[in-house]
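Protein modeling request. Please complete all fields; requests missing the sequence field cannot be processed.
Requester role: graduate student
Desired output: 3D structure, token encoding
Chains: 1
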Amino acid sequence: MTSAATAYRHIVLDDQGVPWIEGLNTKVVELIAEVKAYGWSPEELAFQHPQISLAQVHSALAYYWDHRSEVEADLNRRETEARRIEAEAGEHPLVGKLRARKQA
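Delivered output (104 residues):
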């Protein structure tokens, strides 16, 4: 993957323009999803991801706030795709068996 530097220290863009934390396998959108899901602070994000420094977390958050609409659109696209895949996959056979067992 090639990457391009940004004005945000620790943040690079890949070939598709997706922002990543430089040198790590973590996208900015992944941290934002965790903030939205769990309400985590920057310190909690760094605690939950010991490979990410607090400075890197703050750079990711700064990138998000300056590019909020693009990151939100990416997050929404990913959520829609996950729902589509989940719907296509259908219920796992084990879930049906457990449900039937519970009703018996």
